[in-house]
Amino acid sequence: MQIIGGIAEKDLILRLKNGDQTAFELLFHFYYPGLVMYASQFTANLVDAEEIVQDFFVRFWEKHNQVLPCDSLKNYFFSSVKYGSLDFLKHQEIERKYVDEIIELSKHHLAYDTDLYVISELQERLKQGIDRLPEKCREVFMMSRIQGLKNEEIAAELNISKRTVETQISKALKVLREELKDYVGLLFFLGI
After folding, report:
1. Phi and psi at residue 98, in whole multiples of 5°?
2. pLDDT tens across 98-122, in order?
3. How many degrees, rounded to 5, is the angle at CA 46 between CA 42 and CA 49?
């Protein structure tokens, strides 16, 4: 029978069963370092090992009134930490597989394409900017940039001068540049 802090392990178990926190603390301080080192043999990570052992002691304290006198707490503690470590490793493996699946999915699925969100946001802001243009300016801009008409063709169709077309397009571009200033790189690509 193990003696811990000058008290027989069997007596500590009885005190623990009655809710004696000092008995729990004696057991904790006596076994904690060895259990952490033992768990770290499974996890290869001291922080994870500490977490496993701390979780074990939390559960142990929560069920202190159910502790049965046994031949050795040492065997119980080390077995519990071993199974806790193995559960931790299984959970890590499942988590790793899940992350790998998401990474693989993100390479091929549009919902994970960040450019999709930026482009759709840009399109919405562009639409809002165009809607704010004065009617004649908007009409000239749409004919130029959306329909792809040349300035001469726009001037002929609207019965206005080529210079007026150029002024309206310049005015529209100035407004849209301001509206879309957060998308400077894309604006260059779009010719705005």
Report:
1. -65, -45
2. 777 766 765 665 455 555 556 667 7
3. 55
